[in-house]
Amino acid sequence: MAVTTLAAPRSTGRRIGRPVLVAAVLLAWVVLWIPVHGMHTLGLSPADLTPLHRWLNDVNDTVGANRNSSPVFLYFFNEIRAAIDSLVTLLQDLIAQPSYGRPVPVLGWLGVVALVAYVSWAFGNWRVALPAAGGFVLLGLQGLWTESMDTLALTLAAVAISLLVGIPLGVWAGLSDRFHRLITPALDFMQTMPTFVYLAPLTLLFLIGPASATIATLIYAMPPAIRLTAHGIRSVHPSAVEATESLGATGRQKLFKVLLPLSKRTIVLGVNQTIMAALSMVTIAALIDAPGLGKSVVKALQTLDVGTAFNAGLAIVVLAIVLDRVTTAAGDRVRRTGPASRLRRPLVALFGILTAACCYMSYTYVWAAEFPDTYRIGGAISRGADTVTVWAQDHLFAVTDAVKNLVTYALLNPLQALLTESPWWLVAAVAVLLAALVGGVRAAVVTVACLALLIGTGLWQDAMTTLAMTIVATLLVMVLGIVFGVWMGRNRHVDRFVRPVLDAGQTMPAFVYLVPFVALFAATRFTAIVAAVVFAAPVAIKIVADGVRGIPATTVEAATAAGSSTWQLITKVQLPMARRSLTLAANQGLIYVLSMVVVGGLVGAGALGYDVVAGFSQSQLYGKGLAAGAAIVLLGIMLDRIARASSPSNTRKGH
């Protein structure tokens, strides 16, 4: 008797993927927006204040009234401010400002140039020293010697304190797993916060001036020193440590004889990154009355004086390039030892004597102390920039206006309308759903907390405007990141050509990016967006390029042998396998973009950036500016958390 077996039919249903669910949520949002837009938008006019803003104003007034009587200020905050002011003043007296009854600083321009050349040659070679000396001479020729030295003094003060605190903390983090786990979230938070955010609360405690600027700068600049010092110590090969321990070395001997010498190059890289971060922040700190080149850029941008802004911005770039090249040369120098370094010692001594002679002349003679104004070229640079600006506005207006209108009307305006005109509860519900779909439960919980606090700031609509600009700029950054990153990852010749350009772009402080785009697009929201794109694109492009290049060659060869076209190879193999790099690029792009979009409040971007700037300049809006800084932090945390949680490794852990 035959036995027949009936197989159960297979289920033909498919699990709905996350992209489909995300698209469904967005579509439902657009459909619901049509009948409910304009309702419950939590709008607030620029002059209006909420009870929270008034309370913060009262706190500011109370702090000001008790600053010279409260023990907390008398014996803590005021002492810190006095100590930092003294350090900054000392450095300014040395190289920037008239001091000790003299009409000139202690060290004039000739002495500074000679010292820069000597240090550059000692750490590098003549190829580093000559451009460094030439760069500093150019600062004087631009008519910005005093402003440049003020910026250098603030930078050196912030870097000195950052390294004094950061390197020991980095050593501790490198030696202790527990402390490393403890400090990493704090460093992540410090680097996630846009630079504007540091300024407002610090002025509450330390007043407007060099002290607040220096403290804000060192907070922003310290994380690289801590991270890279810890990374260098943790990267020392265990066999070297074990060999030292087997010889009976103490912990102190192991640290100073093995760990620090073997991690010296990484620590010097941390010094480089700290200097560049400090220079970037010092220029932004001009908003709280920090002296130097940043103040010239801010004043020029506020009056749309492109020529003056370009001249000062060029000086910032020159200073950044010189500092970057000298510290990079120092990092390369620590690897080279032996006869070549010993042969340099007589020359080092000789050039040291010549440098001391130049310093003496700059202290003694007026011509060597005050930079001569006979050959000033700053005016010519400003006029040239103005001429180019007028030419660009006359001849490129059709192109620039078309690009601006395309991005504004096709992307920015619809997204901004969707965010600002939707009821707050609808935006919140969509944000939480998207966070849950993309990043999981933890990301959704963080989003709920951030949105609740964002509503509490009273700046919901301004936050949504800033969010719209951030999203549009990040999308454009990722387009550039994928296009150029894939191109660089697939072609080493392109990588060798493009990467130095990207490195140079990352050297420039954020303020500088605003200047050329103000000339091309005037003061608009689009100016802030395009500046943010150019500011954030280099890091995204390099991350994507490294991810594509990191795919095993055997995988690419197998796909090619199977008959895949170039397009199929990119879209079906390389981009999917580089998904983690794409996620990291999006995360870093978001943080860079948010920082720059907020700075764009100086050139017509409005929203939270304008609220922060207005809080510095108008005492009645101080509380609102402080709340705007908190709103920026909340946006940064929310976006950063969602981007981090959406990485493949975290997604797999969550499921």
Automatic annotation (TrEMBL):
SUPFAM superfamilies per record: MetI-like
The record's listing under PROSITE patterns reads: ABC_TM1
Quick one: where is this thing mainly located?
membrane
Keywords from the named record: Cell membrane, Membrane, Transmembrane, Transmembrane helix, Transport
Protein topology in the membrane: Multi-pass membrane protein
Q: Where is the ABC transmembrane type-1 domain?
A: 148-327, 463-643
**Where does the UniProt annotation locate this protein?**
Cell membrane; Membrane
Does the keyword section mention Transmembrane?
yes
What residue intervals traverse the membrane? 20-36, 128-145, 152-175, 195-221, 267-288, 308-326, 347-368, 424-455, 467-490, 510-541, 589-610, 622-643
Family per record: Belongs to the binding-protein-dependent transport system permease family.
Protein name in UniProt: ABC transporter permease subunit
* Source organism (scientific name): Actinoplanes hulinensis
